[in-house]
Amino acid sequence: MDPETVRRMAEAADLPLTPEEREAVARTLGAWLEALERAAEGVDLFDEEPVLAPAPLGPGGAPPPAAGNGRDGSPPPGGGSGPDGLRALAGEDELAFMPISELAPLLRGRQVSPVEVTEAVLARIEALEPQLNAHITVLADAARESARAAEAEILRGNYRGPLHGVPIGLKDLYDVAGVPTTAGTRALDGYVPRQDATAVRRLREAGAVLVGKHNLHEIAFGATGANPHYGPSRNPWDRERHTGGSSSGTAAAVAAGMCHAGLGSDTGGSIRIPAALTGLVGLKPTYGRVSRRGVIPLAWSLDHAGPLSRTVADAALVLAAIAGHDPDDPTSIAAPVPDYAAALDRDVRGLRIGVPEEYYFEYVQPDVRAAVLAAVQVLEELGAVRVPVSLPTTAVVPAIHTPIIAAEAASWHARRLREEPGGYGPEVRTRLQAGALLPAAAYVLAQRLRSRLRREYAAVLARVDVVATPAVPVPAPRLGESEVQVEGRTLEVRSALVRLTSPLDHTGLPAVTVPCGQAKGGLPVGLQFFGRPLDEVTVLRAAAAYESARGPWARPPL
Asked: What residue spans carry the region label Disordered (predicted)?
């Protein structure tokens, strides 16, 4: 691809490009097309149709018998502090870091006040925000008002459920009525939604206290959290390192006790990457399990919404609150929402855990690989059965991933890209411009390769219950670092970070990462599980079993 060809294509598409931009787009587009051509060599795609509406494929997991879905509350038990108010049992830091699963009974029993919990979180935001840059908007006044309302409801005996009075944060892609949604870009300056995103509305209905909107990689198109407009969020484990992205601020906020959980989005790993690099649990549900209405899209056929939390149980509680069919989201799945948390106590005896023989353990830093394999060994000691599996088609993912995202993102951003290209930073602008000029045949080829990938994963998951892999092949890179060395090979940081998470966005399968130790320098390592469509229960059960054997969550050294 040469700049003159790009110039003619851009003129035909009414896309203004400077000479420098034509050069950058030519390099980017040429690299994508060459990679796609190599990926398709020798692959028989005769029967493969493109993935255009990625409904769940393959064996679905049967939800456990309905026992409630964790949304409904019940009257608080006897005892507590009586009608005169709620009393605090813990210091501010303890309240800010207490798991939701432990905090909820205290709130329900009137032993802790939602106001005190919210103030504890807001105090940490005030103290740590200058160091971590986790937020774009802090909703302090609205949070205090919500906390007071939650306190009054609980005192009246109107307890809504385990998120009632619990501080939750949002990646700044989620619409909150009357609050700007920036998507981490200047291109959306002035956008103030009139209604909440569906997931936000469901959090409010569950009684959650919304405390802030988080920083992110610009328009969620990146894995580091770099942002030319708002600056990078910094990793609470080492403030000279990335949190990972694109849900960078959400990970920093949850890990630092600035909220008890947060909602992120995942198109190539944007929930799981930052969760792994900051020592959190990150859950990407099945495609369509959580509504994306009111969430600024990146790539329609790949976007997933889900939680980041400090424990598996907390992720289960948040998922129960936000999951469910939404008629306003055409990709939303009409399936019952099981009681995810109730299934976590089931043991893993006989659980078949697939361990890939290729790709997922290639170009992985040795201490990361060792930590993940040690975690699998822990599950074997608990009665799980390790099963070698082969997923060779995964090798096409690096070639198809960015072109699919860029083409779909360019469609959503088309008007602004033509009229106000300066609202985007250089990195994202080049990718969007290249996506706008990607030939239709190349996009369809990428989606046909994706179809082959999905069928291969479905076949493997007919033989095993979950698959275990590293979440990210390296610990958190340093800010400004563009390359990393892994097993003698030089990798781009952004390519390395998405390498092991992006396949699960292309398959739409549920996936979770859970901390499984530390690499050199004390940086967190993430263990990833993925499973069958709609079988978040089994994926979470495997993660919870390891978490229970591992011991309590480790706080970063703030």
From this structure: 51-87, 227-249
